[in-house]
Amino acid sequence: MNDNFRNIEYLKHGNERQKLAFNEIKRHKIFEILEVYNPILTGTIPIGIDLPESDLDIICECENHSEFKAYLLREFSEKKDFKIYSIQQNGIESTIAEFKTANFLFEIFGQCIPTDKQNAYRHMIIESKILYEKGFDFKQKIKKLKSDGLKTEPAFAELLGLKGNPYTELLKLETKTASKNG
After folding, report:
1. Where is 106: in which H helix or E strand?
2. What is the pTM for the complete model shown?
3. Which among 163, 160, 159, 20 is positioned nearest to 8, based on CA atoms?
4. Is 3.40.718.10 the CATH classification of the domain at 8-115?
5. What is the mean pLDDT of residues 17-29?
């Protein structure tokens, strides 16, 4: 199980799609460009439950959304299908930039929260531990549910029998997996 998602070197030794992601990130110097914002690749590709259409989600910590937006515009606006917008996610201001490269849709997501405290990272860590504990068959069932149209967290919630909001319920497992391993 990978314990260090902050360093994308693990992708070099992963499946074909992970290797492709590593090369694409390196070729476009995405992490070097975003370095000051503490970027972390999150989502389904790092934990190997991606679908062919899955994007590369990179979360960032930004104190000032106007500056972050201006920086993303300056660095990435020449990329194919570039767009940038702000939303409120769970009551938190979030800035999102999207663009395409030859092999992936990139989504860069910024909040005024340390990246390792953002929900996308926390969900991925919990999901990674569950996948490690439950094994190959569970992973295949998650991928099947996703290919049938479910998002990642609802797929986990369904297989784990979690009731209520799957995003919230999954985060409740964080303390259970931490206390079990600690």
Report:
1. strand 105-111
2. 0.92
3. 20
4. no
5. 96
